[in-house]
Structures are given as C-alpha cells and as structure tokens.
Amino acid sequence: MWKLPSNLALLALIACAGPFSFPSLARAADATPGETTAETPSPYAEIDDDYVELIQMFADALDQVDRNYVEKLDRRKLIEAAIRGVITELDPHSTYIPQEELARFRTNIDQQFGGIGIQIDARDGQLIISSPLVGGPAYDAGIGAGDRILEINGQSTKGMNLDAAIEHLKGEPGETVSLVIYHPAEFKTETLELEREMIQLQTVLGDQRLENNDWDYIYDHDQKIAYVRITIFSRNTAEEFAAVLEKLKADGIRGLVLDLRSNPGGLLSAAIEISDRFISDGKIVSVEGRNTPKREWSAVPDTTLIDVPVAVLIDHFSASASEIVSACLQDHDRAVVIGQRSWGKGSVQNIINLEEGKSAMKLTTASYHRPSGKNIHRLPDAKDSDEWGVSPSPDMEVKMTPKQLTTFQQYRRLRDMATLIPHPPAPEPPLSEVDPVLAKGLEYIESKIAEPAQP
C-alpha cells in the first residue's frame, strides 16, 4: 500500500534527490563545464505545514489510483508520469530522464551525430525552428526560422518535448528523416525527406562569396563597411570571429554590421569572448538563481580588437548567446541594436540526479542578466510589457511582413548557395526591398562615418 504518514511520505519523495556530476547539454548559452558552481541546497529546505499537507494530498491521490483504478498499474510508470506532469508545468527546457534513457543521455553529451542542421525550440505547445544552419540539409531544402514541425517520421509532434524531438531528428549520416513542415509566412504545409549529415559548418559568415569560395566580409568596399554573420555560438566561433576581426582591422574598416538574426545561441564562453572583443572593461553578463549564487563575467583589458561604429541586427529568433552579446553591446553604448525584439532565452539548465543516479531531471535553475541587471529570460507567463529579451534601440525597430520575410529568406539563400557564381544574376533588387533590416544597419553606419571626427 502507498498510504503513509505525512512526514514519511514527504521523506520518501525527497530522499532520492541530490547533485548530478556532469553538466547539461549546451543548447542555449548553457554554462560550459566548471562555470556553474552553485552548491545543491538541502532537500529539506523550506518544509512547512502547508508543504507537508500538499505532499500528503499527492501521496493520497497516488494511493487511490493504485488501489482503485480499473486495471492494475505499473507503479514506476505512474510515478514517472507524475514527475513528467510536474515538469511540464515549468518550461520547455526542463525534462525528466528515466532509467532506460539515462545511459544514452550520458553517452550523447560529447558524441557527434548526424542531423539535418536545425535548432529547435518550443512555444505554445509547438516545435518551432529557431534557426536552420547555413549549408545544412534543412537550409538547402528551404526550411526557415519560424517554421513549425508538425510531424517527424509520421509521428505528431503535439505534446512532444524538446529532448524527444531532438532524439527523433538525429541519427546516422546518410539516413533519411521525413518531416511535415508548416511555413506560417506562406500559409503552406509540405512534406520533406531530408538526408542526415554530420553537421560541422562554418559559423562566422559574410554577405557573399568571393570567386575562390571564401566569404567576403566587407559589404561596402568604397565606404569600408564590414558585414559579419554569426549563425551559432559553437566551440570554435570565438576563435573564427577574432581571426575575421583581425583581418578586417588590417583592411582598415570604418564600420561593422554584426548580424545575429535567427542565431539560436550556443556556448556561454563563446558569447563572453566575442563581447570582450568590443569592450575594454565592465560587466558582460551575470547569472542568478533562487538557490544559485550570483556570478559575473567582466571584460578583460587589452582584448578589444575593434573600436569602429557597430550595428547589431537581431530578430524574434535571436536567442540565448546572441542575446547576451547584443545586450552587452547595447548596455555599454558600444552598438546600436536594429530589428525586432529577441526570443528571450536566458536560462541555465542543471542535471539533478534522482534515485542515487539511476534517473535524473534537467531543471532550469538560474537565468542570465544583462550588464544593466535587467532580465533576459522570458518566463512562460511573461507579458510583452515585462522585462525580457533584447529590444531594438530607439527608432531602430524594423518589422517585416510575412511576404517580406519570405522574400528575404529566398534572397539570403541564393547568396549563401552561390559558390560558383559569387552573387545572384544582375540586376539585383534594392536592398531596402529584400533586407530592410540590413539596409537600416548600413544607413546607421554611414551616418556615423559621416559625422565629424571627435577631438
């Protein structure tokens, strides 16, 4: 029988909780190993009479189901379903890892797998593509940021959590995966068969390619205005970015447009290093949680690589590490931010073991804050009027209609895929028609270049 005195029921439900030894997957600015140093609080903290009564109610409900349901139930499955129900109420990034999946989860952390080159997130019960990686199978097939995944290999994604979706999407290179994709900008649904590849792509890109297939990082050669895109913050991104800045500095650029649109984030360490290239001192980002000691990361002297005017481009799908960089540069008045309000993903997930390590849960335990102290993470019940994400600088908001967004994605894909021909056939459309956000960024940089030199 499940019936227990309230204090024993409470002990039975919390005694298996404890710290887990390996870091969480770095999906969106998660801390790299060693960067989250919070001690696990006592599992007996904040126990009061109301809490004991609620635990008793929970134990009573399980006991009634176990004794009286029409069919005999597997008690483990019942408890695991209850745990999943609790975690479902939290956020899309918290999840329960049962015994049969834990070994695979441990193995998967550092291994590489075939995939289709997309980053996904969840909002309002839907799986949303936050970024297709340039040059990956999904990107080449015409999948864009904001598209919805309705089915994976014939299985509906309704109610599917992020970890389960990722598990379905990845596999051996050369294998195919079938997706039903809804394109909201075009009000169109289509079925795609994509072949998985090992996704190891360049993450620091320019506007178009040179004849030798290298990226051209200078958009306007007459005015010496550079254009650099970061598609994701991976292990090598900061090093790639520093090398590009060194070359641009040697070329004597006078302004820089940094494009972080549809960048889903990545490693916190990469975001910190890239921010540090623009500022010489001051706070870059901090992390805080209810039971997580506050920690700050600040700029290191003598690491600044460039001091020209900067415009940062963001959109609704700029998340996590890209929000850390854009917020840092905005708060330090180092750059103007242009485009649309960002996604609002500034949370840290830790792995906490259950049953002495036989199962576990990935739990959101802290959030990132910008240098001003304002919150980045958007909570599930947050309103548009609340503080979260990164908003464009004054008079720098540029909204795009669904038709404009479709035109832009097609234009961008043509330029990215043009490896033999450096750019689409002339005549090209006016930039303000196909990419009004970049046009606004160039306009700002040109205005700063035209200003009289400061004494």
From TrEMBL:
Pfam families: CtpB_N-like, PDZ, Peptidase_S41. The keyword Translocase does not apply. Residues 1-28 form the signal peptide. SUPFAM superfamilies: ClpP/crotonase (SSF52096), PDZ domain-like (SSF50156). Residues 371-398 are annotated as: Disordered. One of its GO terms (cellular component) is outer membrane-bounded periplasmic space. GO terms for molecular function: endopeptidase activity; serine-type peptidase activity. Keywords: Hydrolase, Protease, Serine protease, Signal. GO terms for biological process: proteolysis; signal transduction. Residues 114-184 form the PDZ domain. Transmembrane segments: none annotated. Belongs to the peptidase S41A family. PANTHER family: CARBOXY-TERMINAL PROCESSING PROTEASE CTPA, TAIL-SPECIFIC PROTEASE. This is S41 family peptidase. It comes from Blastopirellula sediminis.
